[in-house]
Amino acid sequence: MKKLTKNRKKGAVILRVLFGLFFIILIGRFLYLEIIGIANGKPLAAQAAQQYLQKETLFSQRGNILDTNGEVIAENVVSYSMVAVVTPGVTIDKDNPQHVVDRVKTAKVLSKYIDMKEADILKTLNKVEDNPRLYQVEFGTAGKNISSATKMALEKEKLPGIIFTKTNKRIYPNGVFASNLVGIVKNEEVKVNDSYKTIQTGQMGIEASEENELSGKDGSINYSQDNLGLILPNADKVLKKAENGNTLTLTLNKRIQTLLEERMSAAQAKYTPEEMMAVVMNPKTGEIVAMSQRPTFNAQTREGLDKSWRNLVAEEPFEPGSVMKIFTLATAIQKGVYNPNALYKSGSYSVDDIKINDWNNGEGWGTISFNEGVAISSNVAFANLLDKIGTSNFKSSLEKFGLGKSTGSGLANEASGDILYRYPIERVTTSFGQGTTVTAMQMMQGVSAIANDGKMMKPYYIKEVKDGVTGKVTTTKPTQVGTPVSKETANETLEQLRSVIEAEDGTGSMYKLDGYKLAGKTGTAQIANTDGSGYMTGPNDYIYSFMGIAPTDDPQLVMYVTVKKPIIQEGQSSTDVIKSIFNPVMQTSLQYLNIKPEKTINAKSVVMPELTDQTITQAQKALKESKASVTVVGDGTKIVQQLPQKGEGILEKQRVLLLTNGNITIPDMANWSKNDALKFSEISGVPLTFNGSGYVAKQSVKAGEKVNANTKITLEMKAAETLEKYNVKPSTTADEETTAATERTAVNEAVGTIVGQ
């Protein structure tokens, strides 16, 4: 017993010694940290400060894309994503629950606001029963892109556990609108610090090629907080402002682009070609005024994107056919070997025992002048001109016109084409546009020299860049990239190309414009087989095209239209396809430049009177003679704005909009064209979003309702032939609309005004 007591005392002594040593070490460590202030090689003060330091990310905005007049083509809008916190563990105060308490009630309420059935919402919320550790649930696409108005309405319902995260959504309010040029962005949600951000990256078109300009740089704010998360008084803040992306203003004109899209869609519906391209350009500067293609896609809904990823205008090399003769003719004039009155024998031409025929199966037109050969697009005429030019001189000239290399426009994947010039037969066929391949962008650049006194201008589509931080605006300057021919040659070439339009048997006679002198060249090119075994032989296996320059005495616009493999029925022609696009678009485009017509137009019309400050009754009486289709916008009693403006010509059934001094109300726009709908947007300031193309079939806001600049209005557009199932009858067919558009433009030319300005 004594021995046991002795051992216990001995053990107690040992424990006291060990605890004493531990206490001395602990005290020593505290003293060391207090005096030295460093632990694990790091200052303790910094570590303590870090514990109470909060960093918050300030997100930047992607830059907008605008048309030449500042109207939105692409912009960011705020939307929200919704999630539901389902784990009860996050709730500390039962009187202030932070999770979904009543799932049945929550599902019932949410179903009123999002596109998801109540049963499906409840099923999603009940996932927590199978997985008690589940923190939150999402609602798929139904829980994304929620508007600010819907978010505010849901917050008023006071549903515990329903939370929102702010996201930026890229919208394209015009739908199908130069989509392959403008491009789209890819959205990717990533976590930045403790916040989520939608990263937007350009995938194609300008959105991709100008990524560095459009994307912004995030900022941050650092500040000190206490252990309860409250910012400390007098705490130092370090702020790094977010830098928003730059705003790009394009050279595209929204009105002209919209009309071009309408005409392209109508032609696509009627003739179902495999591909189409159309470009309108100012040859004096190289500005792209409008650009479209088919197939294309709706940038807002992305419908059709799987079939239309490329920008055909820049990326699609093709054999241009007889439009290439513009360069052959210009080269012959430049070399001094072209005599328009000299004669040659048409019909056929032989190269190394290979016979080249004129397009009328080699029959030709007997012995005719070269001027006649140009007008009727004789292949043999241009083969003879090549003999006079010399093959080496001709190739050098084509290179001066920019063929065989990219224009360097900045668009991704721009092709260079290929001047096929190895054998004698290839050199001759190149003179009339077979074998050699080009892009539409190259053709526009080359023809700019003919329309601009010999000075060749590089095509461009960005008018100016506005810095997202400083607001400084940088304007793009036109770039001359060569002088392939003299001023005298360019003017003489234009004069010869007028015969294509004005000669009685000219191949371009159907493209005449009322009131304007037009020069141009038609083209019909065979399409090579993909296996290299010659050319396709089907009745519709051609690329039809037309290059038009107007007005010839001082060219302001060049327009190029190509149509690949249209289905042409009996009684139709390739000219019908291209004319339905070229004529209304070119004529309307000239109006925007206020180019007065060169002759008086005989058209039954009246001049739009001054209607502002008049009552509705007075205005309607003043318009009675015109038989115009008058639409009153608003619930006021006095007219404050009008479209068309005073002095412009109007025809029967032309739509006239009168804005009153009262609240703005939306009219019934059933069967309206997109152009008429845009007139409403212009006069009222109310933005519109278009889904589809053609005529208005449905509108998201009922006629008569009050609207303003913040109202979201979506118009469902349908082709004329599909409107019947929507109980809407179009006022005109596509062809009638084309005729009406041409007549309207003719009238306005007669009075020397600009429609819509």
TrEMBL record:
<dbReference type="GO" id="GO:0005886">
    <property type="term" value="C:plasma membrane"/>
</dbReference>
<keyword id="KW-0472">Membrane</keyword>
<keyword id="KW-0812">Transmembrane</keyword>
<dbReference type="InterPro" id="IPR005311">
    <property type="entry name" value="PBP_dimer"/>
</dbReference>
<comment type="similarity">
    <text>Belongs to the transpeptidase family.</text>
</comment>
<dbReference type="Pfam" id="PF03793">
    <property type="entry name" value="PASTA"/>
</dbReference>
<dbReference type="GO" id="GO:0008658">
    <property type="term" value="F:penicillin binding"/>
</dbReference>
<dbReference type="InterPro" id="IPR050515">
    <property type="entry name" value="Beta-lactam/transpept"/>
</dbReference>
<feature type="domain" description="PASTA">
    <location>
        <begin position="602"/>
        <end position="659"/>
    </location>
</feature>
<dbReference type="InterPro" id="IPR036138">
    <property type="entry name" value="PBP_dimer_sf"/>
</dbReference>
<dbReference type="Pfam" id="PF00905">
    <property type="entry name" value="Transpeptidase"/>
</dbReference>
<keyword id="KW-1133">Transmembrane helix</keyword>
<feature type="domain" description="PASTA">
    <location>
        <begin position="660"/>
        <end position="719"/>
    </location>
</feature>
<protein>
    <submittedName>
        <fullName>Penicillin binding protein 2B</fullName>
    </submittedName>
</protein>
<dbReference type="InterPro" id="IPR001460">
    <property type="entry name" value="PCN-bd_Tpept"/>
</dbReference>
<dbReference type="InterPro" id="IPR005543">
    <property type="entry name" value="PASTA_dom"/>
</dbReference>
<dbReference type="Pfam" id="PF03717">
    <property type="entry name" value="PBP_dimer"/>
</dbReference>
<dbReference type="InterPro" id="IPR012338">
    <property type="entry name" value="Beta-lactam/transpept-like"/>
</dbReference>
<feature type="transmembrane region" description="Helical">
    <location>
        <begin position="12"/>
        <end position="32"/>
    </location>
</feature>
<dbReference type="GO" id="GO:0071555">
    <property type="term" value="P:cell wall organization"/>
</dbReference>
